[in-house]
Fold this protein.
Amino acid sequence: MDQATTTLPDAAGAVTDVAEEAASAILPTHWWRAIWNFFHTSELGPFLGKVLLIAATLVIMLVAVKVTNRIFRKVIDHMKQVNKSGATLAAFLRYPVLFLIYFAAFAIIVSSIPGLSQAMNTLLATGGVLAVVFGLAGQEALGSIASGMMILAFRPFVIGDVVNVVSQGVTGTVEEINLRHTVLRTIENKRVIIPNSTMNAAIVENADYGDKNVCLTLDVGITYESDIDHALEVLAKVVGEHPDYLDLRTEEAKANGAPRVVVRVSELADSAVVLRALLWGKDNGTTFAMRADLMRQIKKRFDKEGIDIAYPHLVVMNK
């Protein structure tokens, strides 16, 4: 016990000696003493020390914010490729972390200014009244924050999902979910910002929820003089040969002779017989591009096969 007690002060003294030697290597000892006396005994020293503390706090805050944003962006970009739910959580947590950094810097700065510190203490003493005032004024903002937490917990959509907000008439890819709002990127590369309270209460059509496979319809109108059976056969063949078409038939369905592509006569319209094909793709973007490509291919193939695509006709009869 005596040996341990003797060893600890020796170790502490050794650390102190090393620190003093390191400080002496940077500045001479008498300089350090002069600086110490200036900040602790002179009238200007304490004021200058607080100014330096505030400046250092601001610099550290800005660096911490920049590093935090960079780290979260890298994590979010990585999680988008691995786990979109994880990317959503990381994007949501970025703002509370930034708030803590700003709040810590604000607290240090306020505590460094005596007058401001006393004023803040007075405000905190009336915190109950302020809480009621800010609570009434920020009901919508608090509602959006609570809705954002509900979205994060139940995950009706996550970052990267293609959604259609039916009540708002907006369709786009979820790009960001933060404390207040959700950002959708439309097909025109515009950003639509919708409060979380609206998104939480809205009817949302999610193309990526559960099953990502998407089915779009492709309608083609042919003339009444064209061979309907031949047109159905050609339409099914063109769709089935597209590399992005997704064949969802089971082995049993294939054995029973189920068609690869479902095509039917959809309508006998005024000027056309409307044929409808069901297009299955692995996701919304792929299926949409496939549909556009197929319209071009079908036009060329129908021209080659002698199948006329209908357009409105007006027959005038003189009696």
